[in-house]
Design goal:
five-stranded antiparallel beta sheet; alpha+beta; 36% helix; 10 strands; elongated
Length: 264
């Protein structure tokens, strides 16, 4: 009798567990998918920041394969799951939100480990010829109607700056129907400000590159990223980064199209 009761309890537990799962057996569950997407976002940020090391498709593939192996899945598993999530957009949005929460917690944990208080800004000035200076999470939910949809950054001169440095602001739209606006400017010690802007549909990866004047000394570089959504829309900006690279010998040609104004 006890064995029959135990068997019935086991079957009931299995039914409850099956009922709680919203995804089919061939699809990666929501929680695990959120973890994978968080790691993929970090991997994309690494690729953007270290373009010299990840300049070929094969090197990028190796990085992605290492992420999949960490979670015990294959690229085919992820692709199949994304197709299902793409047809179940409400569930996909929940997974994206969970991935963003995971990234936020990782940043807060890193700050605490470094002896900082929660909520303090991440370091904005780093050594190296190619570094990602974006201080916030690389994925953000946007509606186009909230103050948080307008994201800004501001960097001041330090020992790591070089004249003629290049700054590339990047973002990729997910489930977007509107436009993304990017703005980068630099204040120079001679009282002038040089700037560049971009406004395009947010779908696919969009990039704005700003090249500092190698003949001048800059005191600050700053800018913004904003998504203009439609009423009731919920979308995402993914793979957000601000990558600084060292200048080349084509400073004048590279700065073509950038505008200059004199401060009063």
């Amino acid at each position: 009798m006890r064995n029959i009761t135990a068997l019935i309890m086991l079957l009931l537990m299995m039914q409850v567990a099956t009922g709680c799962r919203k995804t089919p057996d061939h699809v990666i569950p929501e929680g695990k998918m959120a973890e994978i997407m968080a790691d993929i976002n970090i991997g994309n940020a690494i690729v953007e920041a270290e373009r010299g090391h990840y300049s070929t498709d094969s090197s990028k593939m190796v990085l992605m394969q290492s992420i999949y192996a960490r979670h015990g899945v294959t690229a085919a598993d992820v692709d199949t799951s994304l197709v299902w999530y793409g047809h179940n957009i409400e569930t996909y949005i929940k997974v994206c939100e969970a991935a963003e929460e995971i990234l936020t917690k990782r940043i807060e944990s890193a700050e605490m480990t470094a002896g900082k208080t929660a909520g303090a800004p991440l370091p904005m000035n780093l050594d190296g010829d190619s570094v990602n200076l974006w201080a916030s999470v690389p994925t953000r939910r946007v509606t186009g109607h909230e103050a948080s949809d307008f994201q800004t950054f501001s960097l001041f001169t330090d020992k790591n700056w070089d004249r003629g440095d290049r700054y590339t602001l990047s973002a990729k739209g997910i489930n977007t129907r509107g436009e993304v606006t990017m703005f980068i400017a630099a204040d120079y010690n001679d009282g002038t400000t040089e700037y560049a802007t971009l406004r395009r549909p947010a779908e696919d990866m969009q990039r704005l590159t700003f090249v500092m004047d190698s003949a001048k000394v800059a005191s600050r570089i700053y800018g913004s990223l904003h998504y203009s959504g439609s009423e009731g829309e919920v979308a995402y900006l993914d793979s957000i980064s601000l990558v600084r690279t060292r200048g080349r010998n084509d400073n004048v040609a590279a700065r073509k199209g950038q505008l200059t104004t004199r401060n009063r």
